[in-house]
Amino acid sequence: MLIGIDTGAKNLWSAEDSLDELARLAETADLKVVGRLSQKLSAPQNVTYLGSGKLEESKRLSQELGADVVLFDDELSPRQESTLAREFGDRLMVVDRTALILSIFADHATSREGKLQVELAQLEYELPRLRGKWSHLTKEKLGGGTGARFGSGESQLESDRRMIRKRIAILKKKIGAVERERLTQRSRRQASRIFRIVLVGYTNAGKSTLLNRLSSAEVLAYDKLFATLDATTRRIGFEGGRQATLTDTVGFINKLPHTLVASFKSTLDEVREADLLLHVVDAASPVSRAQIASVQEVLLELGAEKKPQLLVFNKSDELDRDGRTALLSRWQGSVAVSALTGGGINELRRRLEVLSS
Do 197 and 348 meet the contact criterion of CB atoms below 8 Å apart? Predict the structure, then answer.
């Protein structure tokens, strides 16, 4: 059961667009969507996310539709999550957008670095939410008796906190070692003065397919969200023997969890060190403008918003000639390509050759 808030804010993402994307995320996590519900509010309620009447409606509707999971389209605060878990009861699992994205990342991480980064993000998300997990024990022991605060619930809570903090420290140390290795690799590329191109874009825009097309690489590319988590660098050649490096990075998404941005720092440092950002956009997406805006928000968060960018509209084979013409007219200086069929790739190569010279 999908649940969201319609704030009425005048931005490129409508409440329905956001719930549509949440549905795709749910499907990526092998969940079947049975229904959706949203409420018009200026902001989520501090404690219950929804208003009291809408909360009761969501509880009734979830039960009628036979839902097992209630999926919220925002990151819930620890207080909201704890309250909603009590409201929906043991039969329904309360999950927010951030937890769902973290779960998908955990399923798709294949490299040692990716697994470390995702585990760190998950633990940093989980740490402030531990109290709610043990509230049933602390309530039993905090009935008013002397020394109740030292009950088994509190002891278990503190024990879990210590274990998680210890694991976070270990993970940060391991990731730090990986960062140093990656820094050494980047330093070598800088010393060679080779032009560095980095692919950025919304998840499932086709960055990995474009990397394969431009570099004759054989990076696995799937038509699903967050298929690629690890940075992959390949060399591409131009006429006259000049070369450049082309690096694929993790795809971005609307409401990308800050814990993931922080945990993937070493991977995303590639973006900050780039000479050129190749911003890949799904030309056929009905929300392409909103996706472009979301990518720009993440680049701002990374401090890479002033990097030179070339906008590349991929999947242009799904548009007719008039659609492609209108797109290129609206976004002056952009390139329309199809990484799948090879259409427009020669023009993109010419543009890259000029920009890298």
Answer: no
Closest CA to 253 of 28, 10, 5, 2: 28
Alpha-carbon distance 355 to 234, whole Å? 18
Comparing CA positions, the residue from 32, 133, 118 lying closest to residue 82 is 133
Contacts of 58 (CB under 8 A, 6+ apart): 1, 3, 37, 50, 70
Residue 198's CB is within 10 A of a number of other CB atoms, namely 25
Q: What is the Cα–Cα distance from 270 to 228, expressed in whole angstroms?
A: 15
pLDDT of residue 184: 78
Residue closest to 194 by CA, chosen among 204, 186, 184, 183: 186
Q: Which amino acid is residue 68, in one-letter code?
A: D
Looking at residue 33, its amino acid is V
**What's at 132, amino acid-wise?**
G
CA pair distance 100, 255, nearest whole angstrom:
12
Token couple for 56: 């009761």
Read off the pTM. 0.83
Task: Please give the helix or strand (H or E) that residue 217 lies within, else none.
Answer: none
Judge whether 102 and 263 are in contact, CB under 8 Å: no
Could you give the 3-state DSSP secondary structure of residue 77? coil
Residue with tokens 């092998």: 30
- Whole-number pLDDT of residue 142: 39
Answer whether 276's CB lies under 8 Å from 246's CB. Answer: no
DSSP 11: S
pLDDT reported for residue 3: 98
Q: Residues in the chain with pLDDT < 50? A: 134-150
Which of 103, 97, 96, 91 has the alpha carbon at shortest distance from 29?
A: 103
pLDDT at 43: 92
Query: What is residue 144's predicted lDDT score, i.e. its pLDDT?
Result: 43
Q: List the beta strands (DSSP E) in the chain.
A: 2-6, 36-40, 69-72, 93-96, 195-201, 232-237, 243-248, 276-282, 309-314, 335-336
